[in-house]
Structures are given as structure tokens and as C-alpha cells.
Amino acid sequence: MISSSVRRELAPFTVFLALLAATVTIWLVLGWRPSKLLMAHDGVLQYVLHEREISEVGGRWVEYLYRPTILGGVKGYPLGHVLPLMSWLAAFSVPHDIAISWVAILLQVALGFLCAMSASDFVSAFENKKVSRLSQILIGLLCGFAPIFAWRLSYGHINLMAAVPACVAVSAVVTGLHQKTLTLFTALIALAALHNGLASAGLQLILYSVTLGVPIWIGFTVELLRRDRSSETIRTTLVGVATFLVCASFLSAPRFWGMLTNASGGDSARSLSRSDVTYSYLTSSFLDWWASVPWAQRLINEGREFPFWHEVNYPVGPFLVVPLLFFPTAPYLSGGLVVSTLTCVFFSCHTEPISSLLLHAAPPLGAFRVPARAAIVFLPWFATLSVPLLSRLRGTRRSLGALGLGVVALSLSSPATREVMGWTIVLAPTIPLLRRHLPLSFALASLSLLSVLAFQERLLGFPDRSTAVNNQQLGEALRRQTPALNEPLSRVTLSFSLPSIDTNAAFDLGVSTLDGYWTPLKRFAQLVAGLQGYQFDPGATVYKFTPTGQGFSPLSVLYNINWNLDRKGEVILATPISPSRPVWFPERILRFPSAENLGASIRPWSGEQIYSTLALNDADPIFQSTPRRSDSLSRCAEARAHNFSISDHGQRFSFAVETPAPCVAVVATNFIEEFRAFSEDGRSSVPTRVFPSYGSLVGVEVPSGSKRITIVATPNIPIVTRILWFIGLLGSGVGLATLSKLRRSV
Q: Tens digits of per-residue pLDDT, 325-348?
């Protein structure tokens, strides 16, 4: 016999497994197959490649710091694009193109599960009722397949999806502790979800939840206090939530520190403290929000082109009325949800003075575009709060079969009919006739079905995994044919594109390029802007260079673009276009007052002028904090570099040198602030200075007598963050053990 306490602990686990099975089944019904990718757009262009890269290092995210093969060199984990979940799957050797689909599914299941646990506790707190396991599964599907997430999953916005379970995890833990229903499994999933969100680029939505969501969290807290003010409950809840937040934060400390230092340093184009890109890309209108009221998407603003629909359409459907209907029961929480939602609407529409006040009160908000995305965090509250409202339905199961057939028949009709059904079901608790005849399970099943159908309307289709495999095979054949392309600093330019990959075609083929759709380093973006004669845009993410474009000639010299790739059927041919020079030694130094001035000045330079003259941007913060070096490099014309090699997956550069005097070596890859350089004279290795040259490239001082120079990308992870991680791990174990003891006593 299984004891009641064990059954109570196992119940959430069975709900999670059922949700996992149901979610996969629904995806299969919607047309996805394991032979296809679950996501398109960014999922193909970026996250499949991120997963491939992290798989190459066995999931060891600290070794995913620098990638020299795209945009002249970019960062990996400090950008937060590699979720812990991606690293975990890579560590278990799950193929990268399969893993990325499972990342999406697991995030969806975690979101639905945590919403179900939180909704069950809301029903217990507000209605003094219990929710059946079947209803919990239906709640999970209703929230996990909310139409708003179809846009995010289809467009591959995994970083945004990762943040939603993290935010829901907090409410699930609070309500679970307050209602004394929190189990070990639920706490573990919540801890993993929050850690996954804090250690990823989903910080945009977490920041919105913390700032714009203040009224919700205040109302949430007040409502719980109104229902149980006993000192023991308050103490247990506060201690438990504090332990949960501290442990999750400590577990995320190493990754979070890397993201924080990157975002506040000179490498990031969008600084947390100095950027204001909030309205640089897309600003919502009140008409956009009006079109987000229904689940059906046919009312979307006709003035919006399709590529922007996913950024302006946040369908809430019939759940929009939930805060109003639930107001008599939970006025503070309902009011907080209304205030936060209106604040999100006004902020996204750039409505003064709200937008200016928010940006002034929380400057980090200025580093993120598309403020309407805040709705992604708030919308799960609408669906979750609908459950206590729907629990007031008193219908029995006698007519459930007939009702179910009716719903299925109507759901297969027009979106308008489905919309009417959804609103009718949500309003049912206020209509006596419906309230007496509709059971909760029917309402949740119907809404889940209608939600999935609205979800389906927004799917973009499923790219074939074989495309990625074919591209990989094409790349392998190309590198066998031209072994020089195995060198990360032997860069190429393409005269063709690959299906679904576009500007990341070369990167997908496994060869190095200056093109790409990625997050560029600030110095690179500034150099390109100066060379091409336009104003630096901190929000730019797509770069495509052509041999006839302005600024290409100096870029091809600086970044060693020495091959042109052309495609003939299923064969890719490489043609050399310039001599290879990954390292050189300038003979003189020329200083410029700004990155813009530097780029414009060197635009007409020939290759020999570039190789002989070291151009420095005196406005770079690196030079403000370090002494100026001597401008004398006159004897360095005779300096030579040979035996150049790159190892540790692009993290280590090494080359032998012969110099008649102290010189500067320039390496044709982008500088990052985590680079450390060492000079070896055959007897010892000593640190030497590394700095940005030509505005963006790596420059390193070569002392007299040096025999070899080594440049290493060293993760900026202080020992204190590793100690915090260990404390977080230990605290999580102690906290879960304590929770188990407390639960047994309930």
C-alpha cells in the first residue's frame, strides 16, 4: 500500500508526465514530426546553431565564450542565448537538431505544469475547493498552448519562452507554501524553471515582471494575506520563498555574472545603463492592442506587414474579462492585473509621461526593444485566474459526452464561432442556466481545445531537419575539398544563400564569415558603421557584406576574407580572392578621436596601408583606463609570425613570433574584454597587454625576445560566483529536505 503522503507527493509528477505526453501528442496532431524542427525563423537561424555549438563542447557552457567564425568574432554564453536546458541536453549527447525541439516542448510543459499547480492553489485559497488531476492537466494544456506562445515558438524566441515559466514559478511556490500543498517535485521544477530563466537572455521579460508587474505582485501578496494572516503561515511562506529565490539566484550566479558584466561593459552594443533602444524597432498602437482582444487573428491591423504580426499581436481572448469577473472575490489581485496590463499597453505605445517615467525609474528597460513583450509575462495570470472563476460551475458529468461532441463540432467551424464559444464558456459562471449545467472539466477541456486551434492559426510550419543535415554534409565536403577553410580566420564571402538560413549560411556550413544574423560586438558594429558611412545602430543584428558594397575592401583586408564561395548544384566551390594574412605587424600608429572617424578615415586605404598602420580609437574605454603605449614601431617591418593555430573551439590563439624590437601584433578577429594574452620566451610565460586595434580587431603587445604569443578567451567568472553556486546547490538540497519534513507534518 502506498501511503497518502507518498501519493500526495507523486500526484504532481503524474500530472507532469501526462502533460508531457499530451503536449507531444498535440504537436503531432498539429503536424510536427520528429523529422522536423518545431520552430522556424530564429529557431533555425540561431538556436539550432547555438545548440550545435554548445554540443561541440559537450554542454560545458564556460567553453562557449568566443566564436571567431561569425561577424568577425562574437560571444556565446555571456549573451544568454544558451539556456541551461540546452546545456543539459548537450551534456547528454542529444543531437542538436533534435534537442532544440525538445527544449521548446519542455519549456511549454514546465509552463503548463506550474500554471496548473498555481491555479489549483488559487481555487483552494479563493473558493475552498480542490481541483482534480484531470482538470490540472487541462489547465496545463490551456496555458502551455496559449495562442500568444504560438508566435514565440514558431519564431524560435526560446529566450523569451524561458522567462515565462521562471516568472510563473515564483507564484507557484508562494501559493504552494501558503496553501501547504507544495511538493518536492513541484519545488524542483520551479527551481529549475527560475534558474533557466535567470541564466538566459529571457531577462527582458523577468525585468518586465519585476517592474511593470509590481501591481500584480502587490495584489497577489495582499490577497493571500487576507485569507490567512497566521504568523506561522506567513513565516513559513516568507522563509520558503526567500530560500527559493536565493537558491535559484545563487545557482545562476556564474552565468548571470557573465551576462551582467558583458551587458555593462564595452563589448555590448546595448548597455544596461547607457542604451535607449526601447522604441528603435517597433512601437505598438492602440489598434494593435484592440486586435489582440480576440483569439482569432483575422482582426490584426491591416497596416501591419506579416513579419511584424508576432510583435504586435498578443491574443488574450475571452480571458480578458476574468479580472473584472473575479474582482469581487480578489479585488486587489484583479486590480493589480488591470493596472499592470494598462501600464504595459501605454508603455508599448510610447504614451507620455508613462514611458519616460518608467525608463527613468528603471534605466535597464532602455536596453530592450519591443516593450509590448511584457504582455507575454502577464497573460498567464489571466488564464490561471480563470480557473477559480470556472470552478463555480456546478454541472455534473451526465451530459458530458453530448456536450463534448457539440464542442468538437463547433470548434471545427469558423474562428468567429469558436470565439463566441470561448467567451460564452468564460462568462458561464455569471449565467445561472449555464452555471448549473456545465462542469469544470468540460469548460477547461473546451477552452483548451479552442486555445489549441487559435494556437494552430499562428504556426509558421515546421522546417525539415534534413535541410540542416544536408547543409552540414555540404560544409564537410567543402572543407575536405579546400582544407584552408577549416581555419576560423580564413573567412569567406558567399554568392548564394541556403534555404531558411539566409545570412547565417556560411556559419551553418561550418566555415568562417563576416556575414551573420547574431548579436554583434559593439566595436565591430561601430567599425562597420564608420566604414559604410551610416550612424551606429545598437539594435542591428543582421549583417550582409558584398564585394561591391561600400567598406568591403578594407573589411576584407582587416578580417582576412580571402575566399569566395559559389554553388553549382550540390557542390560548393571555393575561389581564392586575396592573400591570407591572419596576423601582421604594423610599422606606425595613427590615432583617431572616435570609431566613426576611424572607419571613415581608413575606408579608402589600400591593403598595404592597413597592414603598415595601426589605427586606434582613442575614445575606446580600454584606452581611458590604461597607459598609452609608445608610438614607435619603426623596426617592426621585419617582424614575422608563423605556426598560427586556434584550439579549444576558438577560445585559444597561438603563434610563433620573430621581432627585432617590441612590436604590436594584430590578429584578424574581434577583440573582447575577456581576452588575456601571454608572451613566452622559451623559459617563462608572462602576461602582455591585449587591446582593440583598428577599432575592433585584437592587438597584442609583443615584448622584445618573445618567441610565442598566446591569446586566451578567459570566462569572467569570479570565484565568489562559484562559491555562491555551491551554496545555492547545498541550500537547495537542505531546502527540499526541510520541505519534505514540513509536508509530512501537514
A: 989 989 999 999 999 999 999 999
Which pTM was predicted? 0.92
Which residues have CB under 8 Å from 696's CB, separation 6+?
72, 521, 523, 524, 526, 527, 670, 671
Cα 235 versus chain centre, distance? 35
Q: Which of 639, 602, 614, 605 has its CA nearest to residue 697?
A: 614
Residue recorded with cell 597561438? 654
Assigned C-alpha cell, 441:
472539466
The phi and psi torsions of 639 (rounded to 5 degrees) equal -70, 150
How far is residue 682's CA from residue 441's CA, in Å, rounded to a whole number?
76
Distance between CA atoms of residues 553 and 187, nearest Å: 57
Chain segment 51-62, per-residue pLDDT in tens: 888 998 889 998
Phi and psi at residue 168, in whole multiples of 5°? -65, -30
Residue 253 three-state SS = helix
Sign of CA dihedral 126, 397, 380, 282: negative
Residue 428, number of CB atoms within 10 A of its CB = 23
353: preceding bond cis by omega (within 30 degrees): yes
Kindly report, residue by residue over 16-35, the tens digit of the pLDDT: 999 999 999 999 999 999 98
Q: How far apart, in whole angstroms, are the C-alpha atoms of residue 90 and residue 86?
A: 6
Q: Is the dihedral of CA 75, 77, 81, 87 positive or negative?
A: positive
Q: Measured between alpha carbons, how far is 619 from 542 in angstroms, rounded to an integer?
A: 26
Read off φ and ψ for residue 34, nearest 5 degrees: -55, -20
Cα–Cα distance between 470 and 459 in angstroms, integer?
24
Q: Which three cell numbers stand for residue 345?
A: 499597453
Return all residues near 685 (Cβ < 8 A) that are at least 6 apart. Answer: 678, 679, 710
Report helix, strand or coil for 448: helix
In angstroms, what CA-CA distances link 482 with 65, 488, 558? 27, 13, 22
Contacts of 204 (CB under 8 A, 6+ apart): 159, 160, 163, 368, 373
**Spatial separation of the C-alpha atoms in residues 194 and 2, rounded to whole Å:** 32
Residue type, 669: T
Please state whether beta strands 588-592 and 613-617 pair in parallel, antiparallel, or not at all (unpaired). parallel
